[in-house]
Prior knowledge:
Helices cover about 10% and strands about 35% of the residues. The chain is mainly beta and about 180 residues long.
Amino acid sequence: MAALVFVIIVSGAFSADAVVAPAEAVPGSSRQPTYSTTQESGVVVSHIRIPSIGVDEPIRSGISLSVIDQGVAHWAGTSTPGGGGNVVLAGHRTTHSRPFADLDRLEVGDLVYLEDGEGFEVIYRVSSTIIVTPDDIWISYDLGRPMVTMFACHPKGSANQRIVVQAELLAGHRIA
């Protein structure tokens, strides 16, 4: 009985029910709905490196399941790296290439490097991790500042919730 009570208390601590959309969250003007055919492209549009968890992957355009199955996916119509809005990325944790397997190990201050198609590297610093429900699409909205939002199913092996890691723009520079 004590073990059951412990599980209930621990799972309650990570409840997605307490997370609400920030007042400043608004859909970007070019953000595409999940069902749009633009979410099926799969063309490589960028690259992501997260040294603290060993991620070094191309980023493909679109967040249809067929694109996410190939690796890290960029929500079509959200900001591009270094842009003024929210760069939204999705990836699997336990299936296919599992690029976001250790997303839960990211800590505030860890660095995320994104590259655009022209070799411009942009650096973001992790600022928060939250757990939300699959219906909380506000995580793809702009919050009035340049940032990247990475999300995946949570907990590992389940699609009941989403882990969301957000990082704020730190710096950018030209490579080569």
